[in-house]
Structure formats: structure tokens, C-alpha cells
Amino acid sequence: MPADKYTAVWVSHSSMGDFLKCPRAYFLHNVYKDPKDRRKITIASPALSLGSAVHEVVEGLANFPADKRFDRDLLADFKIAWKKVSGKKGGFTSAEQEEDYFKRGEAMIARVAKNPGPLLKKTVKLKAGHNDMPPNFYLSEEDNIILCGKIDWLEYEDATDTIRVLDFKTGKHDEDGESLQLPIYALLLDKLQKRKVTGAGYWYLDRDDEVKPVALPDLSSAFEKVLAVAKKVKQAREKGEFLCPKGEKGCFACRPYEKIIAGEAELIGVGEYNQTVYLIP
User: Does the structure show a pLDDT above 50 at 1?
Assistant: First the structure.
């Protein structure tokens, strides 16, 4: 099949992560459209809402000159960002639950303000794709598969004209060593910019004052690993087969979406990415 962006299978870290957890969950989150409004569906989640608000503030620092970033009141910025996820639209089922997550977010922002470290340096960004799509490229023209993704922060070293990847983590657990995130970052940086990449790091904002260095994989192994999963996604889409590995009873990943299909979830509204948002009781 000739390359065609309009018929291509688009894959990302999140969509392939869904697929690896459960093909049925992948289908319900990334393919299925709610018959009521023809939008894709998503579930309001406190953890995701926390991550969204924190990332908005921290990543947003890149929009300001390096020497002016920390002139801002980051906690005030966080309170503004939190309004977008407050209440049921953020997946919170009680004021007490929301307060707990809000305080965790405040602590993360306070940690960044106290330990700005690499965020005091210049940064660069990958150019957005056509029609403001995330940065993307053809992972395989032969298979008509496009890989897209965003990188939290690219620290720029002026003296050497090099960059270092930083990824902000708001969860309580370390990133899985088998995650596709770093392989995807390596491929995006190789295809979409020319500077040498000198390293990468995770910043676990919930507990660490400094960035934890991690190694980017070599490009050959990154390509093979990502393409192998992407081909499985494409094959499932072509066959229309999205089976849960646990069978008809479902698993932790797909059961919440099945509740939406069964009418057992509360409709919240339309989210930031034009998805219909539901709250699972």
C-alpha cells in the first residue's frame, strides 16, 4: 500500500501502551466512537488529572526566556491549571480525594521551584506536525505507519549545540524498563532534528529533587522494538480483532471502558482533546 497520511495507522507511546496492556482497551479508547456524538471516549482519572495540571505548569516554563522562568509564581499557575481538572471532570469522587491530589501537585510544583536545576537552561522544541498535530514521521512507509509523540523538555547546551531529554514523572512508581517511551524519543529526535543527543533523564517530581539519568537506546534496537508493536496494532486494526487476553470477563484495562458501553458510567462532557469524558462509579 502506498504511503498516505490519511489512511495511515498512527501510533504513539500512549496508544501502543494501551494495546500492550489489552487490545480491547486499545480499541475502546483509540478506535471506538460513542454512537451518541461520534467522538472517541475517555475516562476521567485523578492520576491523569494530576499529571496534566503539573505538566501544564512545568512544561509551560519553556514558553518564557530562561532567565525569567522562575520570576513567576508557579503555585499560582498551578491553581489556575487545576481549575481545568477540578471536580468530576478530573475524575474526583469527593472533595477529600481531590484535596489529597491537589496537595501532591502543590508539593511537586514547590519542589521544582526550589530545585530548578536544568530548567534554568535554554530549551528547544520539536516542530509540530501539519495542522498542529504532534511531531511525527513515517515509521514505515511500506506499512503505512506513522509514529507521533511529544517530549516534555529538551535541555539545550549552547556551548556544544547539543540537547538532553528530560521527562517529568508525576506517578509514584518508576518507569517500566520495557517501556516504549525512550525508544520513541530516540526515533523522534533522530528523524525530526539534527542536534546530537547527549543523554536523557526522568524527573520523579513526587520524590526526587534531581533528574535521574537514563540511557537512550541505540536507534537500531529502538526502531525494531517500536515497529514490532506498531505492526501488531496495524494487523489488529486490519482484522478488526481486539481481544482481551483475559477473555470475556475482561481485565483491569478494558473493564472500565466496558462499563461505558453498558451505560454504567456517568457522562461528564467533552474533554480537551474532543473526546467524550466519563466517570466510572
Answer: no
Do residues 44 and 90 touch, judged by C-beta distance below 8 A?
A: yes
Q: Does 99 have pLDDT greater than 80?
A: yes
Cell of 171: 506517578
- Which residues, in sequence order, are CB contacts of 271 under 8 Å at separation 6+? 42, 89, 277
Detail the DSSP E strand segments found in the chain: 9-11, 33-34, 39-43, 123-124, 136-140, 145-148, 153-157, 162-169, 196-204, 212-214, 266-270, 276-279
pTM over 0.90: yes
Q: From the centroid of its chain, how far is CA 234?
A: 20
Residues 10-38: pLDDT tens digits?
A: 999 999 999 999 999 999 999 999 988 99
**Tens digit of each residue's pLDDT (9 = 90 or more) over 210-267:** 999 999 999 999 999 999 999 999 999 999 999 999 999 999 999 999 999 999 999 9
Q: What is the DSSP letter of 216?
A: P
Q: Which residues contact 13 (CB under 8 A, 6 or more apart)?
A: 149, 179, 180, 181, 184
State the DSSP string of 99-164. Answer: HHHHHHHHHHHHHHHH--GGGGS-EE-PPP-GGGPPSEEEEETTTTEEEE---SEEEEETTTTEEE
Q: What's the CA gap between 122 and 65, in Å, rounded?
A: 8
Q: How far is CA 86 from CA 78, 80, 90, 279, in A?
A: 12, 10, 5, 13
